[in-house]
Amino acid sequence: MINPAWIPVVAAASGAAIAFIGGLIGAGISYFNTRQQLKHQEAREKKKHHLDKLDEIFEALEELPNLFWKDAVSAHLREETIDDLEMSK
Predict the structure, then answer these.
(1) How far does the chain reach from its first CA to its final CA, in angstroms?
(2) Is the pLDDT score of 35 beyond 90?
(3) How far from 36 is each of 23, 43, 68, 88, CA to CA, in Å?
(4) CA-based nearest residue to 28, from 38, 36, 16
(5) Element containing residue 61 per DSSP (H, E)
(6) What is the pTM of this model?
(7) How many CA atoms, within 13 angstroms, populate the side-chain half-sphere of residue 47?
(8) Could you give the CA distance from residue 89 to residue 86 in angstroms, rounded to a whole number?
(9) Residue 2: phi, psi to the nearest 5?
(10) Who's near 2: CB < 8 A, 6+ residues apart?
(11) pLDDT per residue as tens digits for the range 43-89
């Protein structure tokens, strides 16, 4: 039979043990949750980086015809200027 004087001591010890185990479980869950959040954040950042690069490539490809057009127009203007200079001689 348990001595009645030990009941509060056993109750306090068991309460402390349960709180400690709960703290360990909570810390473990928190640790793994943080790791999962970091993995997802890295994946999001990697996807965003790739999308930004694709956007830069798309913008550069959109400008490509304009560059050729500008070169063609400036070459045509240079030819006209050279022709005008030759005709004025």
Answers:
(1) 128
(2) yes
(3) 20, 11, 49, 77
(4) 36
(5) helix 7-88
(6) 0.49
(7) 6
(8) 5
(9) -85, 135
(10) 10
(11) 999 999 999 999 999 988 888 777 766 766 676 666 666 666 566 65
